[in-house]
Amino acid sequence: MTWRSWSDQAGNGLEWIQLIQQNLSGSILASCVVLAIVDSQDHSDPALQRSFFFNSIWILMSSDVNPAIEGSRCLVTGGAGFIGSHLVEGILAAGGKVRVLDNFSTGFRHNLDQFEDGQVELLEGDASDFAVVQQAVVDVDLVFHAAAMASVPRSMREPDLCHAWCTTSTVNLLQASAAAGVRRLVLSSTSAAYGDSTFVSKRETDPSAPLSPYAAAKLAAESYCHAFQRSFEIETVVLRYFNVFGPRQDPKSEYSAVIPKFVSMILSGERPVIFGDGNQSRDFVFVKDVVQANLLAATAVDAPGGTFNIARGERTTLLELLTTLRKILDQHIEPIHEPPRVGDVRDSLADISEARRRLNFEPATTIAEGLQRSVEYYRSLI
Ligand SMILES: NC(=O)c1ccc[n+]([C@@H]2O[C@H](COP(=O)([O-])OP(=O)(O)OC[C@H]3O[C@@H](n4cnc5c(N)ncnc54)[C@H](O)[C@@H]3O)[C@@H](O)[C@H]2O)c1
Q: Quick check: 101 and 127 in contact, CB under 8 A?
């Protein structure tokens, strides 16, 4: 963030302090800020005092490393999965240390291959087992809970297992984390919580209406996060992702999401399948933006206790998506239409103003750029 954008955003003293805290939560840097304030008291000219104070803070902010993540010991559950493995990458890049807990039900060891030996501590186990989770949170500062059964159709077939992986795992992590002195837990939740309400952009204050066991289990997990934030010594933040896409999203599973399925089918010369007429819409967000949202959620002072939509705030129909993909791939295959799937929502669009305001979240990758990067990845697999 530039000095100008900080100045533009910070209207009064309190906002300044909040912005500084969001970006400077490391104790050493916080001490430096205090010293800068104290030192500025020695100057008699108030304009000089102000300039000295802001310049001191500017010097401290110039570093690219996020001080709250830097040096923090982070647990990423589901770190061998699609979003989790990008999260691991983002935390390491920000100077954090990472432990991954994964049961490899839908995650892959090769998603962690890119990391050098010793960079990531891997714990193979199930987050619905309390003893495993107790071990996973030892000496951890921040928990990013991304492990889940991340599939609506699978949750319709195995609701009990979905409850264990989405809800029980969250209760286990909250209980063990609070006992172990973890500072903050960020939950990967879902826009499926809103259900199939009439077509308007969803706000976090809208009523929830889960249609699937997956949505119900995630909503229960969200409620546990809020209860622990209010009644235990742990901060919690809930992120409701809309449709995340990007490299490493599995195209092979029968429960695969629409983008990896479309790309892999077109690349292999098959006609992509659309359930319904193709005018159903989604709010797609590139995985790197979701990582950024997690890092902000783990560090922003105003985040704890909050629920935030994470998306681009843009509506794309499946037919529009297909048109963009066909252009990128230079293919003109017609889709096959099949009946709509039970439990799927018709339209999904996010209002992301709350995440913008309290997390300073701004999605940076357009759908076309994200699709281009995803296509490059899927091509590299052929
Ligand atoms: N991909 C999306 O569009 C999307 C949208 C909304 C929410 N989410 C949420 O984001 C998170 C990550 O999703 P993803 O798309 O990366 O899915 P994924 O299936 O690629 O990742 C989930 C990971 O969790 C692991 N896992 C599952 N249950 C576990 C358990 N009980 N113990 C330990 N590990 C377990 C899996 O092996 C996998 O590595 C999930 O919580 C999902 O509900 C994803």
A: yes
Token duo for residue 376: 């490059």
* Model pLDDT for residues 307-348, shown as the tens digit of each residue: 999 999 999 999 999 999 999 999 888 999 999 887 677 888
pLDDT tens per residue, range 56-96: 444 444 444 456 899 999 999 999 999 999 999 999 999 99
Where in the chain is CATH 3.40.50.720?
73-380
The finding on whether 253 has its CB within 6 A of some atom of ligand 1 is no
Fold of 73-380: Rossmann fold (3.40.50)
The pTM of this model reads 0.85
Q: Indicate the residue type of 247.
A: P
Q: How far is the CA of 147 from the centre of ligand 1 (A)?
A: 4
97 torsion bin: left (phi>0), alpha (psi -120 to 50), beta (else): beta
141-161 burial, b if ≥16 CB within 10 A, otherwise e?
A: bbbbbbbbbbbbebbbeebeb
Q: In degrees, to the nearest 5, what angle opens at C-alpha 296 toward C-alphas 26 and 371?
A: 140
Pick from 242, 322, 240, 351: nearest CA to 286 = 242
The owner of tokens 């992301």 is 352
Using the atom order of ligand 1, give the atom closest to the CA of residue 191: 6
Nearest CA to ligand 1 atom 23: 78
pLDDT of 53 reads 52
> Is the pLDDT reported for residue 52 higher than 80?
no
The DSSP symbol for 19 reads H
**What are the backbone dihedrals phi and psi of residue 347, each rounded to the nearest 5 degrees, phi first?**
-130, 145
Degrees, nearest 5: CA angle 182-246-241: 50
The stretches of the chain forming alpha helices (DSSP H) are 3-9, 13-23, 27-40, 46-61, 82-93, 130-136, 152-157, 159-163, 169-180, 213-231, 258-267, 287-299, 318-329, 353-359, 367-380
Is the CB of residue 25 below 6 angstroms from any atom belonging to ligand 1? no
- Which ranges of 41-128 does DSSP label H, i.e. alpha helix? 46-61, 82-93
Instruction: Assess whether 241 carries a catalytic annotation.
Output: no
Give the length of the chain: 382
